[in-house]
Design goal:
Distance between the termini: 54 Å
Number of strands: 30
Largest sheet: 7 strands, mixed
Helix content: 40-55%
Number of helices: 33
Radius of gyration: 36 Å
Amino acid sequence: MKQFNVTGMSCAACSARVEKAVSKVPGVKSCSVSLLTNSMGVEGSAKDSEIIAAVEAAGYGASVKGADHAQAAAPGEDALADRATPALKRRLWWSLGFLIVLMYFSMGHMMWGWPLPPYFDGNHVAMGLVQLLLTAIIMVINQKFFVSGFKGLIHRAPNMDTLVALGAGAAFLYSTYALFAMTTAQVAGDADAVMAYMHEFYFESAGTILTLITVGKMLEARSKGKTTDALKSLMKLAPKTATIVRDGEEQVVPIDQVKKGDVFVVRPGENIPVDGVVLEGETAVNEAALTGESIPVDKEIGDRISAATINQSGFIKCEATRVGEDTTLSQIIKMVSDAAATKAPIAKVADKVSGVFVPAVISIAIVSFIVWMLVGQTVGYSLARAISVLVISCPCALGLATPVAIMVGNGVGAKHGVLFKTAVSLEEAGKTQIVALDKTGTITSGEPKVTDVLPVPGVTETELLRAAAALEQRSEHPLAKAVMEYAREQHTDVPEVENFRALPGSGLAATLDGAELSGGNLKFIGSQANVTDEMRSASESLAEQGKTPLFFCRGGKLIGVIAVADVIKADSPQAVKELQNMGVRVVMLTGDNERTARAIGKQAGVDEVIAGVLPEGKESVIRNLKQQGKVAMVGDGINDAPALTSADVGIAIGAGTDVAIDAADVVLMKSRLSDVPAAIRLSRATLKNIHENLFWAFIYNTLGIPLAAGAFIHLFGWQLNPMFGAAAMSLSSFCVVTNALRLNLFDIHSSRHDRKIKTRRHQKEEKKMEKTMKIEGMMCGHCEARVKKTLEGIEGVSEAKVSHTAGTAIVTLSAPVADEVLKKAVEDQDYKVISIG
């Protein structure tokens, strides 16, 4: 997506106009304009010059982001700098100064008898001329409304400034006409006519309208500036310099001079300048800036470090692996910025309304003026109604309702390590009905750990562990690494073995202290030593819990069993429970056999376990689940990428592969499963905030415009002064932005306010049928996977749950499939089908 800066936009009608103009450029696939950040994201093959020309033809300005020198130096922070508030504040103070004097002359003296210089006693023309002069000064100070407003009219794209300019301009011109008419009456000596024209002055209304709209604009700009605070705080974390080692000497250089492969040093208390790998030293690094996690993470040689994190304890020497825009921090900033430049589907409603809003309001104002004139009211009265309609209408509230909430929601997520790539993903995540969790690395840690050490009577745990570690130390198998890690944790002395042999499919063998030492599965060890019924029963119990029992014997005698398992993360059960409390069905996907999968699934508390899923089969499972509702897929590996892309919302665990992160819509920087319900919770809170904003914007205009037009005068006697209309307009946008800022107070990890959403099942689900097949010949998990793949390859079969231990396959059908077809498919794979029921 190519990013552009857009200047001259004042309301939702402007952004809609720019979007429409750029979308017509040949080669533009999509265009999204953000009124909040005054930016535009464009996808397609169109040239930059053509896009800029289209924007300028629509009456606005555009430039490529980062094109000018200032932005090149600090792309993110400079782009988000709040330049509007100081300028508006200066305009406001000057406007207020002249408005106070104007109000003193126009209302203070007339209504409350405040004293004036003797020159003005009875000199009504002089009074009128002073008011005209003061109002003209206020109009010059706020000339931007008139320049932008009338430019919009010329380009046939009226905007909010057009409404303000027309309202204030009409009041000023009519008052000027009344002043000249009063002068003529005074020359003619018609005292009654002079007093009548004095009451037709609306100079103070014109001045007040412009000043109050400026107040609203300033409050709005200030609030909009706060919506990007989270992003700005991230940008401030980026170090400006780095200490690199060149020719054996340390040099402090600007950060943009650090290249990939450079060696740099970081002392305790310093920020890490770029992403890299530790070459020397050990330390603890505070990664709260990126992950929101306050507990420091230990780093040693070979570990990865990220820019903007803080080195807390030790001196480290590192090699730069990612610099400039490639660092993790830069990627986070880009992700949040891109999300702000995209539009949520819900924003399309406001966009459609904004496109016709201003012309409709101008039409209503003209009709109001004509109707009041026809019913016999004076020109001044009728004009006041029309001006009220013009100044109370606020397309800005409509245009800001969605983007401010999206920006704040994204910022809150970024602070907690939850990154939404687009506004669409932020909106859609909250609508999730089913969460599919990949087991390895998502529910579990992804690394086998020793869970149980069971020595036989007469053998201590230390003796068993010493023998097992001695045998496993030469093996590269993941289970062997788990045993060695546990031995190190227990500070076990590990002796060297002789005559080491790896026996594929069985286990390991070696000689220790002159005795034959063996380790492996039950079948292998059972052929070398006597395995008691008690040990067999214990191993079966461990296997049912999803653990892998490793048997060890020495000198032909069993010495014990060590169980190894990919243990579930500490927060997984709580995360699953929170998802279920939110009305989300949790499904676990795994390539493991049915028994192991169900054991892990039971520990985690998931609603459904789909076992025997091969990597290429995950995408198919997600497609089937999507028939039942909106699906979010959570994964971390390369083999999860197709499923992440296929799901309605793909969520990548941050410690996963780059491929998975690229394929996902949401990235969890902390690699914690509890951030999945947090992401859904934040999405729902943001969506609720958008609904509140849109409701306020629509209801304000729905009630305000008829009130301003005078529709309630005869019913309730309600009449709106143009000045109060301008005040209401000023506050409407401010209220919308302030409501969005409330999201900053939202606790994404608190489940106190979780509510279950109504799940809408797909009609196809009602047509589903189940058949149970009895199958002989399945011996292991590979057999299960083979039968499962075969059955799920048949058209009409949506899912097959296969168990080699039970000898069954439960087949779920989305369309009728003949028993003969199912039977033939399985028997072609050399298994025997006993029955189908």
